[in-house]
Amino acid sequence: MKKLIVLPLFMASLAFAQDAEITFSSAEIEPGIFMVEAKGGFGGGNMAVLVGEGHVAMIDDGLPPLAENLLAHVTATAGGPIDFMVNTHVHGDHAGGNAVFADNGTVVFAHDNIRKRLLPDASGAGGPDGLPVITFGDGVTFHLGGIEARVEHLPKAHTDGDAVIYFPGANVIHTGDILFHGIFPYIDLDNGGTVDGYIVAQQEILSMADDETKIIPGHGSLTDKAGMTADIDMLIDGRAMVKALLDQGNSSDDVLEVNPLAKYDSYSWDFITTERMTLTLIRSLTTD
Fold first, then answer.
1. Domain CATH number, residue 73
2. What is the Cβ-side half-sphere exposure of residue 127, based on CA atoms within 13 angstroms?
């Protein structure tokens, strides 16, 4: 397994986290299920706290510099310590607080590939103490009193270690970074992600949802089936436009000059611009 490539997104995120006055807020979207977001700057991806009968679990834990403050916030939100942590994937803006939480008694769960990718360099998990101690293949289910959380691995999507968490009783889904709502997604081709696999995984998640499902994306605001459908349609359309240009014999530079994703400029953000999204599609279409 090759050494984990440190992402420019992660390094820039660390700089923002160190420079900004970032706080956290929690909103109870269903009984016992709290969506946790950073405020005041980029503090990592969207997280969740699950307060069951006798146990508390959490999904993702943000960036390393913010972990102590996050721990204090979620402990207050839950009314007690965090027993279990589920990492949705390997990136440090979702697993960066692992070591701090583990040092405070939290047991970290993650897909097999996350631990494998972190073993050569655990900085993305806050250090060696942040390595997952329990790993799974296809998935695992948590039973927290009245809260059932089904963790399912979806392969070759955002990375090769992604997990989605579905709460059938509460009708809530946490997608991890298989959904960037309202913005271009980052698809990590260097860590096992693929554009085709990303779309297939999104469609699998969508099949779990109905019109009332609350969907927590890895990045972006809380959404629903209609909102996620719009994001999937954008990516499918973007892939088709880039593929058509490549099939006509255009070079990568030619495709960039045409700028086929121009109509989706509103999806651009600090890290994934229209140009970078186009380059991801080109690379995936020419190497997969």
1. 3.60.15.10
2. 9
Let me know if residue 239 belongs to a domain.
no
Cβ–Cβ < 8 Å for 213, 225: yes
Helix (H, G, I), strand (E, B) or coil at 56: strand
Structure tokens at 223: 């959404």
Note whether 131 and 122 are within 8 A (CB): yes
Q: How many domains does the chain have?
A: 1
Stated pTM of the model: 0.93
Length of the chain: 288
Model confidence pLDDT, tens digit, residues 129-178: 999 999 999 999 999 989 999 999 999 999 999 999 999 999 999 999 99
Full residue range of the structural domain in which residue 27 is found? 8-224
pLDDT tens, residue by residue, 192-210: 999 999 999 999 999 999 9
108 falls within a domain: yes
